[in-house]
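TL;DR need structure tokens for one chain.
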Amino acid sequence: MSTTLNPDDLFVVSNFSDDPFAIDLAYAMGQGVDIADLISMKTFANSEFCPRFISDEQDFANIGTKLRGKRVVIVSTANGYVSRQNLSMRTLLIARAAKENGAAEVILVEPDLYYSAQDRGPSPDLGHTSFERNPSDLKKFDGQPFTAKLYAELLKLAGVDGVITVHNHSASVQHIFSEVFGDNFHNLIPYEIFVDYLLNSNIIECGRDGEGLALCAPDQGAREYVKGMFQHLGLNKARFIMLDKKRSGERDVEITLHEKSESTFDEIDGHSIVLFDDMVRTGSTVVQSCQFLRSVNPKKLVFAVTHFYASDEGREKMANTAIDEILALNTLPTVLNRDVQGRLRKKMVVLKIEKWLARNICEIVGIDHTDEDEGFYQIDMSSKNPRFIRKIWSNDQLGVLRTRTGD
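>> reply
TL;DR here they are.
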């Protein structure tokens, strides 16, 4: 995204002063100054938001130039206090404030990219899909805006030069953001995090070459992602299966084994199974898929998900005994809240990705990452599920692991 950069020329801020994710990310990137000491989240009496990058009140010689030559990273994560619409508008104003005060580059880090569900519009030219859109698909968006496109264009207009997100699921969103931001749009896939945890914990049972392990794609849309996970694992005796789902209603789904699945049910009988997906909302499809997989008598069935923003309904459904454990990332930091986890606490593990994300951002913006800790993540686990045990690897095995994960 940019040439080699002095770390002192990088400002990491957030659109919400007490965002713990942004604070941890800034620290992991080597920023010693609290984000609240870099920018003031000022609000006028009429409720209008007016961010202000903090400067020396006695300095009248450098008005409007505090950020000259600086790169500003705006971190935006969903929380329970400010709506996504509000956060989006705050981001636009912070980006404009940065540019009008001299910033050379503004980068938005939004792990769960907003408006990605509104990834096409009511006509064939509004959206980029891998399938031919029929009237039924077009009707879903009748009367709605193509919000993902509007959001990308507004970010660019406000002064954002690049966007970094994590595991965006929509080909249409990726297409439009790539059109607007070119090579400065980065969709990071968290292979290293999941691979490291699977190989270094006792969440699954399998042989050293993957005997007794099966990775599962819930549908053809997730196939490439899960195949990538399979390749990063590097366990040549592990199995790969793919399911198929047909919707007959909002929550009515028929699950079958996909005709192009690399393995059959007979071949994975008694295996540990890890079902991967990018997100979970209502939990209906996840639970039905796991219930379907129970027919092969799995030794253990783990659901691994990048974006966990399940509804009350979703949490209730995923408490179903068909799912043994849930492995999630904190792209939506509210997942760390015990009330949000609810009944799932007894089988949920959350991997905090700030360290992994910091490494990637530093590489993208062109600064050295000085963190001596070789880990990709921190682990948040409820006392209801105190299961994690790190495996002991030899130096040779660690070398293989680093090769697999690209470290």
